[in-house]
Records
---
Amino acid sequence: MYPFTFTKVSDTREALNAGRRGGRYIAGGTTLVDLMRETVERPESLVDISDLPLREVTVTERGGLRIGALVRMAEAAAHTKVRTTYPVVSEALELSASAQLRNMATIGGNIMQRTRCTYFRDVTAACNKREPGSGCAAREGYNRTHAILGTSDACVATHPSDAAVAFAALEATVNLMGPDGERSLPFADFLLRPGSTPDREQALRRGELITSVEIPAHPRPLKSGYLKVRDRQSYEFALTSAAVALHIRGGVIREAKIATGGVGTVPWKLPTVEQHLVGERPSARLWAQAAERAADGARPLAHNRFKIALLKRTVERQLRTVGGTK
């Protein structure tokens, strides 16, 4: 680990001033500390923001849900409003990491976490995300766990967050505060596809701080849930996952929100699957037909072609679980 300075701040103004000077924000530290220990990340200055007042889960005026950036993953998963209103979020959080990490890691840190690509974490390997212009060892290396959607010639790494998949499905908003004031970004615009600049992973400006993630109100009743498929049952990242939310009224699907993880360079929304469902009556046949569109545009690599079929089965299974099989 390389030398760094450490500052603990007690209010937002202090945090923003330190961030503007190039300090890296840290709260739970469950990702950044690991990367520093492996010398993947070498920040010169850390700013501890764990005392900032960003720890509340509140209902918005329009009936949505706002989750503070410093709410612990375990707290958010157990919160009554999260569990009853958006179980897909609670389930995604509970299927993430270990209980110990969920007790430390924050919502803001979770959506900011960096890929688990082994080449990214191996400082001797070529990685455009870690060292722009060095190449992408994963493209020609062992790439079984890598992305098939949203990839580029520069990067094929997946985004690791389960909670981010649920937020993407529900079309959440990320609220930010920075030297230039406050602003909000749709979740779909917050996390960036690699393109030719895979080292730029979020649409954050210098010194900006995540204050909360806000889920908009959705029509009721809303059934939702999260399915994660992985090599082992605990403490493992997804090969594929599916976050599904369905508004079914009068026996007809009025609204469908679906995203998938483990297969994309960012949490991957599935608009063609959603469109296939809206206006239809739930049935096993409908779920299978809609899921066939889940891998549209996929670009598999040498070792992860199996993800195409696995993704379709994952989406179909979760549609059946959430929507029923009549």
---
Amino acid sequence: MKTSTSKVVYLGLFVLCMFFIYGCNSEKASNADAEVNTGEKQDDKPIKIGVLASLTGGLESYGKQTVRGFELGLEYATDGKMEVEGRKIEFIVEDTETKAEVAVQKATKLLEDDEVDFLVGSSSSGDTLAVLPLAEEYEKIMVVEPAAADSITGSEFNKYIFRTGRNSSQDAVAGAAAIVKKGVKIATLAPDYSFGQDGVAAFKEAAIKLGGDIIHEEYVDPAATDFTSNIQKIIDQKPDYLYVIWAGSNTPWNQIMDKKVQERGIKISTGVADIATFPTMKPLVGMEGFTVYYHELPDNDVNKWLVEEHKKRFNGDVPDLFTPGGMSAALAIVEALKKTEGITDSDKLIETMEGMSFESPKGTMTFRPEDHQALQSLYAVKLEDKEGFDYPIPVFVRELSPEETAPPIRNK
């Protein structure tokens, strides 16, 4: 009887131990599953970033600047290790060809085949607007750079979109501040797509607030090379200023000079674009306007590193208009990943990035929580001749602070 009782006791203890072991193992398995589902344990997986850029087409130079800046930004932010929180960073660049349908195809490939954790891009507002719904569908953060259309963080906004590039309203505020006084009459010239349309709408809003009067709006095919009839229409309206919004290599400056616009008493103002456009702006010496970036303007350690490193890597060439933007996109992503300890769960990243500040070649940027637009500095400049240059360059007038250039919130 005693032996039988002992067997029962031992059997009970054995079952209890097995139950305990099973329970512990189940709990571990459950925790492991939870780590996979929430992204808490991802040390063995590289972080993948898909970069969409115009490497061919009308905005080819912008795309190449962005990609250069992005790679340099990753190196700067990771001290050359190309990893964050122990996870390697890989990035894949795809050419959108400056075509919206191609941008969608390439973004889909990055999301489905390459399984990227982030999207970055693109050079064209049209490309970018076409891709925004994919970021929402696949629930992946997309850092927009350098596309500027207001609608990206406005009417077409979704919570996965964060923009390090400035938007058209920030350009508009800076442009208006440079020229508008009460009663001044202004005509505008812009490409006939979202970048130009949004840009004019934002400039008009800012100019009216300062007492200006927009008397004519002229829109042109973005691929146009003949601006003669458009410029004549503007001349016929006899404005005090012609404010030009443009992007791409087919600039209107030579034809504005040929039509003797300034000799007719019409002053020109614009945002100063990339270095390749400077020779075409010879007739605009003395013009007051603004710029997103010129390598001599920002005075901070990040920009100094960018300028020096860019010269070393690229045969003495300086960073151009959108190089710092590419770098800023990389800096923002790495800063967010440091704060999440390498976790790429989109909800956690959104929570982290809303209101997040980070250092960039243009100083401190901050993602505004309401629309995820990066508030940032722009620069009031004057075009002047400079010894050693065959073309005018932008000379610093003053820094337009992030608070001063903060655009309206448009994602109602």
---
Amino acid sequence: MHRYNWLEKILFLPTRFERVKLQRALEGKTILITGASSGIGEQVAYLLADVNVHMILVARSEEKLAAIKQKIEQKRARVTVIKADLRNDDEQDVVLQYIHELPDGLDIVVSNAGHSIVRSIFHSLDRYHDFTRTMAINYFAPVRLLLSLLPLLEKNQGQLINVSTINVLIQPLTYGAAYQSSKAAFHVWLQSVAPELHARGIITTSIYLPLVKTPMIVPTTAYTKMPAMSPAHVANIICKTMYTKKRQYKPWWGVPLQWASIGLSGVWLRVTSRIVKRGRE
């Protein structure tokens, strides 16, 4: 488990979480969690283990899903695991078929599956797949999934929780073209359809996160010394929105960062350009 240092304790304030309220709100509900085999998705599953819910855990690693199911089955929650790469339409169809055959439908979707790439654009000149694969999992997969599941969420007056990044709210960071553009695409899609969903009784919640200590960031060595949230902390935030129905979460410093990002965009470009130039010298 990732333990916060003094700076992280300041940046990522504790989340007050009430288990009784969660249990009351979720009693008998069915919850789909994508990207559930590690990191945030795994921690959300563990946090819901003592609640009378049916969790549908989806990820690519069958072995990891099985291990999570084994741990949770000893508690109150019922667990179904489905091995699927959501970028593959046939595998996504297996997930959708199972959900549509459920007698009580679906109540909550935690859209968490994702892929990150941090790479200079000049190292991607012959890697067009950097962009197609991030768009495939970060944008096209959740859109296709939700186009099928929205009627079920409407019927049950459910909730869609999107695990996003604070990067979609600020000036794009250098080396993040593939990842940030794909996350921004789904962010805009969800913001566009949200009024229609709300009008039909579907709550949408966007969780705008900074860096999180998950396996996804391991390949980027520069992230190892940067402040990062604990996946367990993020799970608390996500599960809390299941009973508060809060429309969004961002760190306390998120709004000042947004304003600074807009007001200092020219300065940001000059500074980052100098940093990149220095790194090449």
---
Amino acid sequence: MKKSIIALAIIASSTLSIAHATSSEGKTRVEMGATQFNILYPDVNRYTYKKLSEFVHTKQIDNGGYKQVIELCKSKKPLNLNMNFDHLGKQLNLLDVLHKHRADAFIVLKDGKIVAEQYFDGQSERTHHQMMSVTKSFTGIIAASLVAEGKLDRKALVGAYIPQLIQSAFGMATVGQVLDMTNNLNYSESYEDPNAEVFKHAKTVGLTPKEEGYNGPKTIHQFLAELQKDGDRSHGEEFHYLTANTDVVAWLISTVEGKPFSEVLEERIWTQLGMERGAYLMSDPASVGLASGGLNGTARDMARFGQMLADGGKNLLGEQVIHPDAIAETEQGGDPSKFAKGGYSEGALKGWSYKNQFWHTMNDNNAYTALGIFGQWIYVDPTENVVVVRQASAEKSVVDAYDHEMLSAIDEIIRRVK
């Protein structure tokens, strides 16, 4: 998959081999050598991705403990993860692949019940884990629900909702274009360039430290307001996966709901799905949550979210949580031609699209997935009612071959649990 802003594939760390990946099980941050300056490095990320709140500012997301926790039941037909699957004509073993990909948690649900659940490197069902850009999909489905409720208009200009962005690249883009990432935005993700926007965005939440004398934007909103278009290309022509868009979507959500995005996430998702634990969201100095990549939660709670999507927006008790029209629109996917025009329809992504902050397979089952770099997945097959969650601490931000292997494994999983 193409790299996202939060990827921050730190040049020095990208050359480290998997052998440098020290297990974090039973280790302290001192023993791991983890600091706020090396959060994303592959030799420490098996610790930092499980304990990110030790290194950055966060916003707490309550699970509404006064409400009922909705238990995830175990299926009477469990799936053995020690299974082989075909990948490009070769037989691979799922457990071997999960170890190679440095998985920390793996859960499969069928019809809302756990058919497989396994943890690695000392993680458990209680462990919070950084979800990276999977966060985008939580943001996207909330925005899609607000559209379905008539609170947001996909055809309206972003500048009409957020005056602070009128003079930016977003001002004359529509809500729908930003939500589907087809707007024109001059946003460099060149990891060889220390002045690229990718690093400026990360500095607002502390994922990379500010150098001495730094005078760039200090908050997410300041950063977004400075961004401009990339030449004269019209908005809406082609898809480009750029994380800044998601934080604009969150700003729109906050504006129309009249409260911080973190509170909307809590009220509309976390307190409605019977989550086992609260969650937390990375935030900037202005206490604005990073809606594009800052969510930390348990694997089981990620599975509850995926199951809600598979069940048409209903929680495990059958209560409607997300507007059904938002789910239906999301399942349809986006425009594959715009996806291809942006240079994304290749390899495992051939024929895919992007809609409402989800990646869409465009297959016969209308399957789609939330993806985060370093190996985070929430895969939803609404036709077969299967959800697959993986949390990981991969050694690199994006490994296309790993993503392709995961898709082949998921195809076999769906075949076996029918």
